[in-house]
């Protein structure tokens, strides 16, 4: 699992870790039951604080994406890829709604907006 941290990103490091692990689960790069690196191992490999990776793992666990077994480690929980995909679809719908709202504020018709979307999809 490759996680890339960007210091120039506006997102906190723990969110970058969380987002990349979520993406890996959705893409199937991390399978159900697969063990994640320990908090300390991930912190060392990313050269960040163990507190930062602990926060990322806590957020992932709170959303049900991973499960932590005391003394054994953290594992990818089952059946969550659909939940993540649904969340991502809601986000895209929100962005599209904002784009439509902005287009209408500029006086664009539905036909013009549809044509623009078709061009972007190409």
TrEMBL record:
Keywords for this protein: DNA-binding, Transcription, Transcription regulation
SUPFAM superfamilies linked: Winged helix' DNA-binding domain
Classification lineage: Bacteria, Bacillati, Actinomycetota, Coriobacteriia, Coriobacteriales
Pfam families in the cross-refs: GntR (PF00392)
InterPro entries: Tscrpt_reg_HTH_GntR, WH-like_DNA-bd_sf, WH_DNA-bd_sf
PANTHER family (UniProt xref): GNTR-FAMILY TRANSCRIPTIONAL REGULATOR, HTH-TYPE TRANSCRIPTIONAL REPRESSOR YTRA
Protein name per the record: GntR family transcriptional regulator
The keyword Protein biosynthesis is annotated on this UniProt entry: no
The keyword Transcription regulation belongs to this UniProt entry's keyword annotation: yes
Signal sequence range: none
SMART domains given in the database record: HTH_GNTR
Domain HTH gntR-type stretches: 11-79
The organism's place on the tree of life at top rank: Bacteria
């Amino acid at each position: 699992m490759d996680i890339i941290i960007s210091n120039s990103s506006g997102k906190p490091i723990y969110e970058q870790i969380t987002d990349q692990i979520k993406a890996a689960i959705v893409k199937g790069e991390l399978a159900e039951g697969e063990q994640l690196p320990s908090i300390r191992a991930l912190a060392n490999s990313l050269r960040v604080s163990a507190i930062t990776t602990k926060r990322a793992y806590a957020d992932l666990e709170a959303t049900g994406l991973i499960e932590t077994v005391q003394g054994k480690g953290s594992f990818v929980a089952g059946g969550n890829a659909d939940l993540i995909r649904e969340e991502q679809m809601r986000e895209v719908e929100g962005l599209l709604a904002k784009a439509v709202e902005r287009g209408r504020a500029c006086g664009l018709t539905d036909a013009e907006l549809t044509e623009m979307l078709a061009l972007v999809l190409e």
